[in-house]
Amino acid sequence: MKIAVIGAGTIGSAVAKALSEKYGVIATRRKIEKIKWLEEHGVEVLRDNKIAAEMADIIILTVKPNKVRKVLEEIREAVEGKIVISFAAGIPLKVLKSSADAKFVRAMPNIAILVKESFTAYATNDLSDEEIKLVEEIFETFGKCIKIEEEYMDAITGLSGSGPAYASVFLESLIYGGLKVGLPRDVALLASAQTLLGTAKLLLETNLHPAQIRDMVITPGGTTIDGIFELEDSRVRTAIMKAVDAAAKKSKILSLEINR
Ligand SMILES: NC(=O)C1=CN([C@@H]2O[C@H](COP(=O)(O)OP(=O)(O)OC[C@H]3O[C@@H](n4cnc5c(N)ncnc54)[C@H](O)[C@@H]3O)[C@@H](O)[C@H]2O)C=CC1
Ligand SMILES: O=C(O)[C@@H]1CCC=N1
User: Fold this and answer.
1) Residue range(s) defining the domain that contains residue 25
2) Distance of CA 8 from the midpoint of ligand 1 (Å)
């Protein structure tokens, strides 16, 4: 099976590389020299979207949201009846369907595709059970995946699509905290990253609620409660909730803009 990745920028290159371990992959980009390195992974690199779409059984769109319609117009005939997966934030299935006669999937992965730990949520109304299986096999090469109703796609975009950026801000803050209390840079970085990784794993593997994990760590009268007191005083939870809310709202705005 051949998969075309149209618009191999940041996420598209990660997608092409991950898929190349299991599938035949064609990747396109206007500045083709920037993705020549993908050839080392067996990816066929082209400039022409139409030829790539013609050669492929499944097409993944990784261009920016404002380019999706233009690209679909360009490859309309080549994708007829094929599965087309769009990773573009905010672009509804309705808009995709109005641009080509294909079987569309609207999906939202995240940059952790690079280490096969993406969380990919997707919505579709066009696929048979067999085709869903095929698409999930593709998403599983990126990490974990779930099917959701399309009404949740903007929310998931604001949460897990953008999530690695929020987590990186938190990570960076932890590292800075470590530096403030005198840790060497490399120790601060490793301690911060492994602590986040371990906590996420603990939550996923035990089904403990984060509040239970927090309480397990807080020794009465100990050190952690002093740190938690500062976090609560800084309204960190409100800040993070506002970040997810703002990004989800922006995803919704993108869909309104595209309809104009
Ligand atoms: N960066 C991320 O972590 C995530 C991005 N996305 C979505 O993926 C899409 C791409 O995002 P990024 O990779 O961050 O942006 P990007 O700007 O790095 O990648 C887009 C690529 O498309 C190329 N392109 C533009 N017009 C083209 C055309 N006509 N034909 C072929 N290639 C063309 C650009 O040259 C660029 O390399 C967006 O729709 C975004 O919503 C989704 C999930 C996560
Ligand atoms: O910032 C963005 O628009 C894209 C969508 C989700 C993550 N990055």
Assistant:
1) 2-153
2) 7
Question: Residues 68, 169: one domain?
Answer: no
DSSP 8-class letter at 79: G
Looking at the CA of residue 90, tell me the nearest atom of ligand 1: 41
Nearest to 236 by CA among 181, 178, 169, 188: 169
- 234 and 126 assigned to the same domain: no
Q: What token pair was written down for 41?
A: 């992974």
5 band by pLDDT with thresholds 50, 70 and 90: very high
Q: Which residues line ligand 1 (CB under 6 A)?
A: 6-7, 9-12, 28-31, 49, 62-65, 67, 71, 87-89, 108-111, 161
Measure CA of the first residue to CA of the last residue in the chain; give whole Å: 37
Side chain identity at residue 246, one-letter code: A
Complex ipTM value: 0.99
pLDDT of residue 259: 66
CATH number, domain of 135, equals 3.40.50.720
50-105, pLDDT tens digit by residue? Answer: 999 999 999 999 999 999 999 999 999 999 999 999 999 999 999 999 999 999 99
